[in-house]
Specification:
- The protein is an alpha+beta fold and 430 residues long.
- It is built from 9 helices and 11 strands.
- The longest helix has 53 residues, at 9-61.
- The radius of gyration is 47 Å and the shape is rod-shaped.
Length: 430
């Protein structure tokens, strides 16, 4: 089964680079050990050849009764000397011990002849049998072994691997961090909201991408501004001919046709006013920010609706003071309340302060909105033909204006269907 890579690019790069570097480090360590083994073997064989030649010559010249006292002085970690014929073995030598036997034979030739036996056991063991000048037997007991690895070497290797992993992690972080910043900047990029410039910092590739991203934001902003200005200009210029048409209709013959024409003109005028309001909502930062007693502000708005005979109630109201643009906030809540009254006949307002943010919810028990249309209705001129059709009124700009103004206030408008039916429109302010 094909192994599954982690989901994030950071983890994938980290694992790939770390695996590659660890393999390279392991290969280098294996080569070092191999070279160390070969070097140690060459040194050992050279030392063995000279040492055995000297030791055998010395023991051959010593009196027989003094030889036993000299044996401990001639012993080495990998070979030692014994007087006598030694242990019984087999003449078949492995390749490694055969090389050692050749070195010893070369060192003692031509003065002494040597016979070699391999001794059975868990480790390789070789004995060379020499006959001294007086006929005494001498055994060279060789036990090849690698010199142990220094105790500090595994610790040094572990520290090296930790430093390697830390460097890989830092390199991956530096490489991926611009992508994360690009993703965050792209998430913040929304038409109608103030654009945050991407930092055009080094390295060069990131700076070039940052300049391209900032240019893209500027082009989008100019395109949107141009379209909004066209909408505002058309809506504004339509007011004059609409007024002339109304005067002509009102001065004409009275009757059902006149009433239908006046109703059509009212709808056109409403659409023009909403178009101008939407164009202005895109530039919602023209109004200065002021400190606002939210309790008094919401209560005043609710009392105005109640005085007009509309069913608007408060279910919860936090006692807070906020810095915002009062007229923009009033327009947002008015649009949401009018929307609830139009489709449900009743609106509830719930104000909550939680986790440093302020949430103003307008709730109704109307038909609600299909789940797949909750975001689409925030676009201009979008109306639902089934539950919220043209017959119920509206221009399709009320929620779009509220969404644009909420964005201009640094907040967000979210719509959701309520359990049991109805719609919940929540304006969240920082």
């Amino acid at each position: 089964m094909r192994p599954r890579l982690p989901g994030s690019l950071r983890s994938r790069l980290f694992l790939i680079l770390l695996a590659g570097l660890l393999c390279g480090q392991g290969l280098a360590f294996a080569i070092m050990l191999l070279e160390r083994d070969q070097s140690a073997r060459a040194v050992m064989l050279t030392t063995l050849q000279r040492d055995v030649a000297v030791a055998v010559a010395l023991l051959d010249r010593l009196p027989a009764e003094e030889r036993a006292g000299w044996l401990p002085l001639l012993d080495r970690p990998t070979y030692r000397y014994e007087l006598g014929p030694g242990a019984a073995g087999t003449p078949d030598l492995p390749s490694r011990t055969r090389m050692i036997a050749d070195e010893i034979r070369t060192a003692l030739a031509p003065r002494f002849s040597v016979r070699f036996d391999a001794l059975p056991g868990p480790t390789e063991r070789l004995q060379g049998h020499v006959v001294l000048a007086d006929g005494s037997g001498l055994t060279i007991d060789v036990r090849p072994a690698m010199r142990p690895v220094a105790s500090w070497l595994p610790v040094a290797l572990g520290v090296q691997l930790l430093v390697l992993a830390a460097c890989v992690g830092l390199a991956v972080r530096l490489a991926v961090r611009p992508l994360t910043r690009f993703a965050e900047a792209a998430d913040r990029l929304e038409p109608g909201r103030p654009a945050t410039r991407f930092a055009e910092a080094e390295p060069d590739e990131v700076a070039r991408a940052g300049r391209a991203f900032n240019a893209l934001q500027a082009r989008i902003a100019r395109h949107l501004d141009e379209r909004v200005r066209i909408l505002a200009a058309i809506s504004h210029d339509l007011q004059t001919p609409i007024t002339r048409m109304r005067l002509r209709v009102e001065t004409g013959a009275e009757g059902p046709d006149q009433d239908r024409l006046l109703a059509d003109l009212d709808e056109v005028e409403a659409l023009v006013r909403e178009g101008i309001a939407y164009a202005r909502s895109v530039h919602g930062d023209v109004e200065p920010t002021a400190r606002l007693d939210l309790r008094a502000f919401i209560e005043s708005l609710v009392f105005d609706y109640q005085d007009a005979g509309r069913d608007v109630t408060l279910t919860a109201l936090a006692d807070v003071t906020v810095a915002t643009r009062p007229q923009a906030l009033r327009r947002i809540l008015t649009n949401l309340i009018d929307n609830a009254l139009r489709y449900a006949g009743r609106a509830e307002i719930d104000v909550r302060a939680e986790e440093g943010r302020l949430a103003i919810a307008v709730l109704d028990r109307g038909p609600g909105i299909p789940a797949d249309k909750l975001e689409a209705v925030l676009l201009p001129f979008v109306r639902l033909e089934e539950s919220r059709s043209r017959d119920t009124g509206g221009t399709g700009l009320g929620l779009a204006i509220a969404d644009q103004l909420a964005a201009a206030l640094g907040g967000k408008l979210t719509l959701s269907n309520r359990p049991g039916g109805g719609l919940e429109a929540v304006v969240t302010l920082a």
